[in-house]
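The instructor's notes for this session suggest beginning with a concrete chain rather than abstract definitions. Hand out the sequence below and ask the class to guess, before any prediction is shown, which regions might be ordered.
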Amino acid sequence: MPTRKKAATRPSASSPAGNGERPPAPGRAGAPARQRELRARGQRTMRKLLDAGIQVFAKRGYHAARVDDIVKAARTSHGTFYLYFSNKEDLFQALVADVADELATLRGSLGPVTPDEKGLAELEAWLDRFAALYEHYGPIIRTWTEAEVGGSDVGRLGTDVVGELASALIEASGGPTDIDPAIAAMALVAMVERLNYFVLSGQVAATRDQMVATLAGVVHRALFPR
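After discussion, reveal the predicted structure:
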């Protein structure tokens, strides 16, 4: 049997794209920040607030999180916060736009998934990139996929993006032939997201390598029953 190709080098958890610290794009900034041009210092401050928001949403959940919590986590002032974001929801929407952009890039990075070892290696590398992204943005993705914002525009966007990942699996593999491919792909993506959550939260004792290898094997066998 051919040796499985090792997954691509992992990007930093604090920079899913692997290009160093990335400032928020102007179109994804908070409402107050969009009204002016941000210099390098302003971009760093906004990034600090966004990262603090991720920490707070992870710890307290979307509804319980407060601007006061985010300000304390960022070690800045309320006045500084409101220079960049109108409220907690505005900051969360900026994070959602960041994640949507990252997931769109991830979707486009999946090459052909074939029934052989080469296809398994491609799938494993893709799932490893998802794991890197999830390590940083997991709280935002979970808020999308759980009931907290399910009926909102943000919740619908999250559903659409998860559906896009499922579509990527269908297109890359040709999809299962004996069951509905769309339903099957959505089930597989849900499994990938949940296992990442369980491993990161310590509910499943596994390393990232073990998790990615297991997921790749399970998804590959589901796509290509032997």
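Then share the key points. The chain has a mean pLDDT of 80. The first helix runs from residue 40 to 60.
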